[in-house]
Write a structure and sequence with these properties.
The chain is elongated, with a radius of gyration of 31 Å. A hairpin with a 4-residue loop joins strand 2 and strand 3. The protein is α/β, with parallel strands linked by helices and 848 residues long. The protein is built from 28 helices and 14 strands. The strands form three sheets. Strands 7-6-5-8-9-11-10-13 form an eight-stranded mixed sheet, sandwiched between helices. Strands 1-2-3-4 form a four-stranded antiparallel sheet.
Length: 848
């Protein structure tokens, strides 16, 4: 005779025996369970406020410590580390005798108070940070200290909420099931908070309003929690049970390791899949909100299913192991969808100017690819709780231990894959690694069950034992073989996705790939068209090329400020791109120092090899310093001042890029200018809408009211523009500009201008398109992009698939009035300029 698993029987008997030996307790438990649905609603509210805070704090702190991979890694590690510490510490410092609902209510109240304090405290912390900021290891430590100062207090309380409320639950199958439902309810609230913040609060209002909404939810939850605690009695069954914290299920370490691996794989996969999906859908704030919401929906669904299973199964460890085995197939499914299927769905996002139609398609594609694996990761948490639950053990310590193990794994997964695995081995091998780790987790859980010790009472039992073990060996061999096959079939990211992103299905141009790789912050590709045009792609879009129109823009960003400044010596270039803008300064004889800020370390290496001719090999020039960091962070922390700051960041619809278009950022740039200094900023008219362009220009003019606009149009049709600002209102001396260009020292500058169809000073000046005083009427309804609202990224995200450049440009130039007081010029030159502007013939040789 072979006996069944002793632990499963013991667990069932304990739950029955508890009721039988305490005949008065069922009434108490019945009363307690009456309030559980209400407590579940409170936990939903808690999850909603937590996600609103997360989005707000990440946005606020990125403005202080930057948006580089190092900064984000420190930020994420601190946030999740606080959650982990909170889940461990609370059960050890708060007595089990305290009413769980009151403890939970006080935690929520504390979160709300600290949330508001962080909102008002960030500016002061910013001042302290900028006074001591540095680069290298000491800089990383300082960023970590800032994050810890801001995030540890509230995240400690957030991490403590689930262990606190778990003490309201008995460690029976039904009680553990309710813990799973609480976890799922918290995630459901997080989904709502994610969508509420991303699609409404921050799009329509600002960070302050969103914070007050989150704090109001905390206050409401706290008051309801205190109210429920006054109605619902709480007492421990007996003193002996209250002291039974040392009572544990034997051999529970595999469960903790497995749930840790589960958290590692889940967050690692989220990092990888968010990166790939943002290539496919466009890296807007809305895309990130959709991806996060779908991932959380999957976790919530899975948690609910796992909670039901944990209530009725006698072998939760077997169920947990099966989850990890199924994850091997689910991860492979997602990998296949993201590389072989979804990129080639015949979807043209430009067919509709209404972004809400595209959001529906984006949501569908995310659900189709990500949901299966997310559900299985969600189910793992309640099953892990059930696997180590034992009657009499402190529920707070039990939940805190499982939650901490899961969170530690999540920290390792998020930071390890974003900062180490993807840059070193790419997304393809990173997904293979996740499949391998899930395979290990499945084996770890199933091995003790398959090789369990059985009591043999007959020869027939011995035969059955050997048969079971043979079956176990065969099953494991099949499982490993299946996993190896799935690992082998994972495909790499298509080069077309890195190059063209969401437009891949509609791109018909013939081109060849010269280079493709995945960096720490972005994926890079270099392609060459059959007409010889070479394109530089970053994360699914062309950011630079040798096309004449693109070359003109890149060179205008350098030549225009360098020529308008009387004697420029130092330059800061924000965004390396193909380094053509930085290279334009090499030919200006007075330039002594060029600083280039680039967030992706891979970009300078690539452009040095493939665009050296176009950028005058600027990266080998001894005057150049390359700063690999977030440009805003560099400008915020440097004490150096420059004669010229020229900015060519990525499109403002890309999440995070709007921080380089805010009023506060332009104020920082103004503070970093020497007397007579000039700032130029690129503003795209394509893949944008009128509201976004108005916001960019109006925000710039708030800081530089004497600013001017210079067009890079295509035969009179809008493409993009350069806006130029100075701390002082200076005039342009046309004759001196002509003399400078005609001098021998400027022969290379003159040749560079001719290559982009500017054959004289007059032809360059005819690109003038307007200034603030002319556009007052047009800009009257413009929304100013500030750090506290990041309005631009929400406006630009709505216009991602719009093609209104011609219309926007026509609106701008319709307000243009010839600026008599801007140019110091002869009547003949002014007449030539006026005629050229009226005819739109700015690139011809109007007057030599």
């Amino acid at each position: 005779m072979i006996y069944e698993n002793n632990y499963s029987k013991l667990r069932f008997i304990e739950s029955v025996y508890m009721i039988e030996q305490n005949p008065d307790e069922p009434n108490l438990l019945t009363k307690s369970f009456r309030f559980l649905p209400l407590v579940l609603l409170l936990f939903i509210g808690s999850g909603c406020s937590a996600l609103i805070y997360e989005i707000i704090w990440f946005q606020l702190l990125q403005l202080v410590i930057g948006s580089s991979a190092v900064s984000l890694g420190v930020l994420l590690g601190t946030y999740m580390g606080g959650m982990c510490l909170g889940s461990i510490i609370l059960p050890r410092v708060i007595s089990r005798y305290r009413h769980p609902l009151r403890v939970y209510a006080l935690l929520e109240l504390g979160i709300g108070i600290i949330g508001v304090a962080v909102l008002f405290g960030i500016p002061y912390i910013n001042r302290i940070y900028t006074a001591h900021a540095a680069y290298g290891f000491s800089g990383i430590l300082l960023r970590g200290a800032v994050c810890a100062m801001c995030l540890l207090p509230p995240t400690l309380l957030m991490g403590a909420t689930l262990p606190a409320i778990s003490r309201w639950i008995e460690m029976t199958p039904k009680g553990v099931s309710w813990l799973g439902f609480f976890y799922g309810g918290n995630i459901a609230g997080a989904v709502f908070g994610c969508l509420l913040a991303g699609f409404y609060l921050l799009r329509v209002y600002d960070i302050t309003t969103a914070t007050y909404v989150a704090a109001s939810i905390n206050l409401t939850v706290a008051l309801l929690g205190i109210g429920v605690s006054s109605l619902a009695k709480y007492r421990l069954l007996d003193d002996q049970q209250a002291q039974c914290d040392v009572k544990k299920v034997s051999g529970s370490w595999p469960v903790y390791v497995t749930i840790g691996l589960s958290g590692l794989c889940a967050l690692g996969a989220e990092v990888i899949w968010t990166r790939l999906l943002s290539l496919m859908l466009g890296a807007t704030v809305y895309t990130f909100s959709i991806i996060l919401a779908v991932f959380l929906i999957g976790l919530g669904i899975g948690s609910s299913i796992g909670s039901v299973i944990s209530r009725y199964t006698l072998r939760p460890r077997l169920a947990l192991g099966c989850c990890q085995m199924l994850l091997v197939a689910a991860i492979s499914w997602t990998a296949y969808m993201l590389s072989r299927s979804l990129p080639y769905w015949p979807i043209d996002p430009s067919l509709s100017y209404n972004p809400w139609y595209n959001f529906q398609l984006d949501l569908l594609r995310c659900i189709w690819a990500v949901l299966p694996a997310a559900c299985l990761w969600g189910a793992s948490f309640p099953l892990a709780l059930a696997s180590v639950a034992v009657q009499g053990r402190d529920p707070g310590r039990l939940v805190g231990g499982i939650y901490a193990a899961n969170t530690v794994g999540a920290i390792v997964g998020a930071i390890g894959f974003s900062m180490i695995a993807i840059p070193l081995v790419g997304t393809q091998n990173s997904q293979r690694l996740i499949i391998g780790l899930s395979t290990v987790a499945g084996i770890l859980m199933l091995m003790p069950l398959l090789w369990k010790k059985l009591e043999i009472v007959s020869t027939r039992g011995m035969v059955k034992l050997y048969a079971m073990r043979l079956t176990a060996v065969i099953s494991l061999a099949v499982y490993l073989g299946f996993a190896i096959i799935l690992v082998w079939t994972v495909s790499g990211v298509p080069w077309g996705l890195v190059a063209y992103g969401r437009n891949l299905p509609t791109m018909l141009e013939d081109s060849v790939t010269l280079y493709m790789d995945e960096g720490m912050n972005a994926s890079i590709a270099v392609t060459e068209m059959y007409d010889g045009v070479r394109c530089f792609h970053v994360s699914g879009k062309v950011v630079a090329s040798t096309d004449p129109l693109d070359m003109r823009l890149q060179l205008m960003l350098g030549h225009v400020p360098a020529l308008f400044h009387p004697k420029p010596r130092s330059v800061l270039v924000v965004g390396c791109g193909a380094a053509v803008t930085a290279g334009s300064f090499v030919n200006h004889p007075d330039i002594e120092r060029i600083v280039i800020c680039e967030i992706e370390p891979l970009i300078p290496q690539v452009v040095k090899e493939y665009f050296g001719k176009e950028n005058n090999n600027v990266l080998d020039d001894p005057r150049v310093e390359m700063v690999l960091d977030d440009a805003r962070h560099f400008i915020l922390t440097t004490r150096e001042k420059f004669d010229i700051i020229t900015s060519d960041p990525i499109h403002p619809w890309v999440k995070g890029a709007a921080s380089l278009y805010t009023q506060e950022y332009f104020e920082l740039c103004k503070q970093r200018l020497n007397p007579g200094g000039i700032v130029t900023q690129w503003v795209p008219l394509y893949e944008s809408n009128s509201d976004a362009v108005k916001s960019e220009i109006a925000t710039f003019f708030e800081v530089f009211p004497s600013g001017t606009i210079w067009s890079n149009d295509s035969e009179g049709e809008g493409y993009d523009i350069v806006i130029l600002g100075q701390a002082e209102s200076n005039k342009i001396d046309v004759e001196k500009l002509r003399e400078r260009l005609d001098s021998r020292d400027y022969s290379q500058v003159r040749q560079s201008l001719r290559e982009i169809e500017f054959s004289s000073a007059i032809s360059l000046l005819t690109t003038y398109a307007g200034r603030e005083r002319d556009l007052t009427e047009w800009l009257k309804d413009a929304q100013i992009n500030r750090d506290r609202n990041m309005r631009l990224q929400y406006l630009a995200g709505m216009g991602l698939n719009s093609f209104q450049s011609e219309q926007i440009f026509d609106e701008i130039v319709s307000y243009r009035i010839f600026p008599e007081d801007l140019f110091i010029a002869s009547e003949q030159d002014k007449k030539a300029l006026r005629q050229a502007m009226e005819s739109g013939n700015g690139k011809d040789d109007v007057l030599l």
